[in-house]
Amino acid sequence: MWILILCLFCVSIYAISVVEHWSIYRHWDFMYPFSAFASSFVQEDVKPRMHDRTFLQTAPILFIVAAVLSVSVLPFAKEFILVKLGTAALFINAAFAYIMVSMVLAGWAPNGLYSMVGGWRFLGQLIAYSMPIVMAITSTVMRAESMDMTEIVKSQYELWNIIYQPLGFILFYLASLALAFLPPFDIPNSLGELSGGVFSEYTGKKLLIFRIGRLILIFSLALATANLFLGGWFGPFLPGFVWIFLKTGAVAISYFFFGRLMPRLRHDHSLEWSWKYGTPLALINILWVGILLLL
Hints:
This protein is mostly helical. It has one domain (about 45-295). The protein contains twelve helices and no strands. Helix 1 (about 1-25) crosses helix 10 (about 205-230) and helix 3 runs parallel beside helix 10. Its main location: membrane. Belongs to the complex I subunit 1 family.
C-alpha cells in the first residue's frame, strides 16, 4: 500500500508541474517536468559575490524540509499517515511557519536588491495570512474536539466542513494561495515586478530544490484542504486513498485556474485584505462554529 501511495504522490507532483506550466504558457507539455529538472540539474551554480554562505546553503533545504514535514502528518487514507500526532493540526501550522523563515533566509543570503525585497514582502504576506490559516484550522478542531487529523476527518462523516463552515473553507483556500505565492498573491516572486523576486539570484541545484519544494508545498496545502474541509477519505465506491488523491488533485489544479482569473494584488492591498477582512471573518467563522456546537 505504501508503495502505491508513493507512486500516487509522485504522479500528483508531476501533474501539478504540468498544470502549472499550462496555466502560464497556455499549451500542454507533458515532458516539461523532466526537461526543467534536467536543465536545472546541469545548470552552473552561480554564487553572488557578497553572499551569506550559510544562509545560501540552508534556505533551499529548509524550504523543502518544511514542505515535507507538513505532508508527513496528513492522512493519505484511514490508516496511512507517515507520522501520527495527537497535535497534528497544530504541527501543520508550525511547519508552514518555517516556509516564512526559509524565504527570509533566501531573500537575505544573496545580498541582492530584488531577492531581499521579495523576501521581506513574503515575510509580511505570510504573517498576514497565517492568521486566517490557523483560525480556519482551529474551527475544524473545535468541531472534532481533537487536534488529531484522523478525528478531524471522522467528524465529517455525515457532513463535510465545506458545508458546515463554508466561510472557513474560503479563507483557508485563499490563504493557501498566498502561502504558496500563487496568483494573485505572487508579488514576492513575480517576474514582471522583481525579476523573480526571492529566487532571482538562485541557479542550478538550489533553484531546483526550491521548485520541487514549492510543488510539494502546493500538494501539502491541497492535501490539508481535502482532509480539513472535503471529508478526507470519505466517498462512495472507491477506496479511501483514491478519494484522498482525487480531492487533493482537484484542489491543486483549481489553484492555478482560480488564481489566473483574478488580477494580481499589489503587495499593500494583499496585506490590507488579510488584516482588515480575512482575520475578522476568520473570527466570525469560529463564532459560527461555536454557536452550531452549542445548538
